[in-house]
Design brief:
Strand content: 15-25%
Largest sheet: 4 strands, antiparallel
Number of strands: 15
Radius of gyration: 21 Å
Number of helices: 6
Helix content: 10-25%
Strand order of the largest sheet: 1-9-10-8
Structural class: alpha+beta
Shape: globular
Oligomer: single chain
């Protein structure tokens, strides 16, 4: 599986603009790397992008306020209340369904729809939800916490807004150099993952807040190599409309021969757990060793789709990482953990 993806982040104009050269970073005390020294729009103190926690990958386009002036606190946890979680994720379920019945359905589905692991054919596998319904609620609550804190509405599909790209623009045939086609049986596996999520049978993942990395995702049970973790989703827009966008989570969807037809996924308004999976440090051997996911673009029934797939076995408690710079090398990762 060749990764042909990009988490794009376009650099904004420099914000280091004081008349004198005495500005120093409040964290490290150095005045070096002026292009990465960010000034607070309230107190006018300086902070290196890479000294902030969590790190900023590039200079924000609009106003920016330092941690002291914003009084950043630990994100407020989403209520661990079943009805609230069901409403937040718009889970489809019958009014008289009970947890034991749901658990039984999971077991039946595993037997009927399990895919034989084959290295030769490289079949993709559906994720195995956690059997304990209470633990699944905790997993979904952790994602809801991160989505609420980032002001993101939950969505598990690509969305097409009237002011952005139309769905007809998402044409895999326009891909420069061609795009690999997802086989029929793997499409069925992807659709199974979608149906499970609609019923509240989420991937076995927890979103945790790390003071250095920010929100990050870790496995909550053992995950097999070639397991579909999730699809990268969000609003679809033309790249040309987003060249000066302030978001740091844009993903290449279509890399067209004609640059004006290239598309990106923007998960800042609508998205799922994919936007919280962190990237490896491309400049560090230890950073590259952390990679346990591949981010791959596929032709699915004529449309471009982006999947996060396990590229090795992942143990419980291990954090998930993939390469933000699949082939275009535009995302600055030198200060990543």
């Amino acid at each position: 599986m060749a990764a042909m993806v990009l988490r794009r982040r376009t650099r904004a104009p420099k914000r280091y603009s004081k008349d004198d050269d005495d500005v120093r970073c409040e964290r490290c005390g150095s005045g070096d790397f002026g292009s990465k020294l960010l000034l607070c729009d309230k107190c006018d103190k300086g902070y290196h992008l890479f000294c902030l926690r969590p790190i900023l990958v590039s200079v924000p386009k609009g106003s920016w306020f330092c941690p002291v002036c914003t009084n950043i606190k630990t994100p407020q946890l989403f209520p661990l209340v079943q009805t609230k979680i069901v409403d937040f994720f718009r889970i489809q379920r019958s009014s008289d369904a009970i947890e034991n019945q749901e658990k039984g359905n999971i077991k039946k589905r595993k037997r009927a729809c399990s895919l034989a692991f084959s290295k030769r054919k490289r079949k993709l596998l559906a994720y195995n939800p956690t059997e304990d319904p209470e633990r699944r609620l905790e997993q979904m609550a952790s994602l809801a916490t991160a989505l609420k804190a980032s002001g993101t509405e939950y969505s598990n599909e690509l969305t097409y807004r009237p002011s952005m790209a139309l769905r007809s623009a998402n044409c895999a045939a326009l891909e420069k150099g061609g795009m690999q086609v997802l086989p029929k049986e793997d499409i069925e596996t992807l659709n199974l993952c979608k149906r499970m999520m609609e019923k509240g049978e989420c991937p076995p993942l927890m979103v945790v807040f790390d003071p250095v990395e920010g929100f990050t995702v870790q496995a909550d049970r053992y995950i097999k190599d070639l397991t579909i973790i999730t699809e990268y989703v969000g609003d679809v827009d033309y790249l040309k409309n987003r060249e000066n966008d302030d978001g740091d989570s844009m993903m290449t969807l279509l890399h067209a021969f004609n640059p004006l037809k290239s598309l990106v996924i923007c998960p800042d308004k609508r998205g799922n757990i994919a936007r919280f999976v962190n990237g490896i440090n491309n400049f560090s051997p230890d950073g590259r060793k952390k990679q346990n996911l591949k981010c791959v673009r596929y032709n699915v029934n004529g449309e471009c789709r982006v999947l996060l797939i396990a590229n090795r076995d992942i143990r419980k408690g291990e954090r998930l990482y993939y390469d933000y710079n699949g082939y275009e090398h535009e995302y600055p990762t030198e200060h990543f953990v």
